[in-house]
Specification:
InterPro entries: AAA+_ATPase, AAA_lid_NorR, Homeodomain-like_sf, HTH_TyrR, P-loop_NTPase, PAS, PAS-assoc_C, PAS-like_dom_sf
Organism: Halalkalibacter krulwichiae
CATH class of the largest domain: Alpha Beta
Protein name: HTH-type transcriptional regulatory protein TyrR
Strand content: 15-25%
CATH topology of the largest domain: Rossmann fold
Oligomer: single chain
Bound molecules: adenosine-5'-triphosphate
Helix content: 40-55%
Shape: flat
GO biological process, one term: regulation of DNA-templated transcription
Distance between the termini: 78 Å
Pfam families: AAA_lid_14, HTH_50, PAS_9, Sigma54_activat
Strand order of the largest sheet: 4-3-8-7-6-5
Length: 490
């Protein structure tokens, strides 16, 4: 028996494990018993292939009592119907692996190897018995889980990318959103700077929505829209009798935002005297209603936004330096749309989708239209694009929005940009060419340009002051192809 253990690595441990206290010797029965704990089936067969040992897992997997199996060869098992079929295909020769289908419907992977003695003669065979159905189920479960994980990941990603309806296909915008989500976890004051219509309010709302205050009030105050004489009372509230007409006490906008987030939009328009009071609230949380001597406490997260250059205002003495630094704890700069041109088309499709829902339409954007939108400089930024798409959805008679419905300012800009050359530069300045050739060159260029700009032969003909058939004829003559059928789907 001691020889039997010779190959084990930790012989002492094994000796201890298989030692039978009662019999005062190593126990072979104990070892065999322990093999029953294997999840996979184990079989031993003699040189004729007759099974002389099976562990309990084989019974569980095959559904055949071990006693019934002992002494049988695989062929005899097939005759008795325990095995329905066995693949003659040898998957691997050494070890030999075959697939057996059992009467229970299960598919089994049996891998067997000969056990040899010291002379190299085969003593018996040892085989493992694995339920592939179980493996297949596990694999399916794993694939299913992987699909769920992938789906969740994609959902999270698109939720992040489309968070609160925010398109963020540019790297700049994604960095801004990441920064907003990060800063939302603290109460730090944020100063958002950017041109009008770039999405400052949207970012302020994102900060609020991603913070622990999301269920608390979100108050947006446009400091530029409140008359100077009223702003203090509007922000801080007032007591009865504080001024003529104050016939009852009223809480201010800051109090309305208590425990939540207050966006001070157009902060650069705040008068200097109110700036001092605002600084105190931000620093201490203390404030007084107009006409009151009792201090009140506020727990507000402040976000300020402006399109103005506050640093310059500080230099000019129109904005308090201390307030500027207090607000500018985390600065967020949103670039204008012309500096993230890759976002123009995704934004256009985003607004197209919204307007299709709003007006119950199914309009699409033509490729030429998208190209024109991409080339425009968008001085009014995203707000201008949003309004223009709505206008185009309303104005377009056809399902495909073509360049002919693009407002003049966009088309004019394209012309001014010079990427469509004027007829005068169709030839070089020293060149002399026959007038007929010049006419042909000009005609060809002009027709191609009109087709690109207006997207249809009918519209091009209308703008060139000729009829439809003239354009068709000249297109054939000059080999111009119409792109009017190319379009983007939504
Ligand atoms: N990344 C974006 N994805 C989708 N819509 C956007 C995005 N950025 C801005 N918008 C939309 O554009 C419009 C203008 O944005 P917003 O009001 O936030 O700009 P703003 O910078 O605060 O403008 P203003 O300075 O004039 O107050 C809004 O309707 C907003 O929903």
């Amino acid at each position: 028996m001691r020889d039997f253990y010779q190959n084990f690595l930790n012989k002492e441990k094994l000796y201890e494990t298989f030692y039978d206290e009662k019999e005062q010797r190593l126990s072979f029965a104990k070892l065999i018993d322990y093999l029953n704990y294997s999840y996979d089936g184990l079989l031993l067969s003699d040189t004729d292939g007759r099974i002389f040992y099976v562990n309990e897992a084989v019974e569980r997997i095959s559904g055949v009592k071990n006693q019934e199996m002992l002494g049988l060869t695989p062929e005899e098992m097939q005759e008795r119907g325990f095995i329905v079929s066995q693949s003659k295909k040898v998957l691997k020769k050494n070890p030999l692996t075959i697939v057996q289908k059992l009467k229970t419907g299960k598919e089994i992977f049996t891998t067997s190897r000969p056990i040899k003695d010291e002379k190299g003669e085969t003593v018996c065979y040892i085989a493992t018995f694995r339920d592939i159905s179980e493996l297949n189920e596990l694999h399916q479960e794993h694939t299913f889980q992987r699909d769920i994980d992938y789906q969740e990941l994609q959902e999270l990603r698109s939720r992040f990318l489309m968070m609160d309806d925010i398109v963020s296909t540019s790297a700049q915008m994604r960095t801004i959103i990441e920064k907003s989500i990060k800063v939302a976890q603290s109460d730090a004051t944020v100063l958002i700077h950017g041109e009008s219509g770039v999405g400052k309010e949207l970012i302020a709302k994102t900060i609020h929505n991603s913070s622990s205050r999301s269920k608390k009030p979100y108050i947006q105050i446009n400091c530029g829209a409140i008359p100077e004489s009223l702003i203090e009372a509007e922000l801080f509230g007032y007591e009865k009798g504080a001024f003529t007409g104050a016939d009852r006490p009223k809480a201010g906008l800051l109090e309305a935002g208590n425990e939540g987030t207050v966006l001070l939009d157009e902060i650069g328009d705040l008068p200097l005297n109110v700036q001092v009071k605002l600084l105190r609230v931000i620093q201490t949380g203390d404030f007084y209603r107009v006409g009151s001597t009792t201090p009140r406490q506020l727990k507000v997260r402040f976000v300020a936004a402006t399109h103005r250059d506050l640093k310059e205002m500080v230099r000019q003495g129109t904005f308090r330096e201390d307030l500027f630094y207090r607000l500018n704890v985390v600065p967020i700069e949103i670039p204008p749309l012309r500096e993230r041109k890759e976002e123009i088309v995704p934004l256009a499709f985003h607004f197209l989708k919204k307007n299709n829902e709003k007006y119950q339409t199914n309009k699409k954007l033509d490729e030429a239209t998208c190209r024109l939108l991409e080339h425009y400089s968008w001085p009014g930024n995203i707000r201008q694009l949003e309004n223009m798409i709505e206008r185009m959805v309303i104005m377009s008679d056809e399902d495909t929005i073509k360049p002919c419905v693009i407002p003049d300012e966009v088309l004019e800009h394209r012309k001014n940009e010079g990427d469509l050359p004027e007829p005068s530069i169709l030839m070089n300045e020293t060149e002399i060419i026959p007038l007929a050739e010049l006419r042909e060159r000009t005609e060809k260029k002009m027709i191609a340009r009109a087709l690109e700009r207006y997207g249809s032969i009918r519209q091009a003909a209308k703008h060139l002051g000729v009829n439809h058939s003239t354009i068709v004829r000249k297109m054939q003559k000059y080999g111009i192809e119409s792109k009017s059928t190319s379009e983007h789907g939504v």
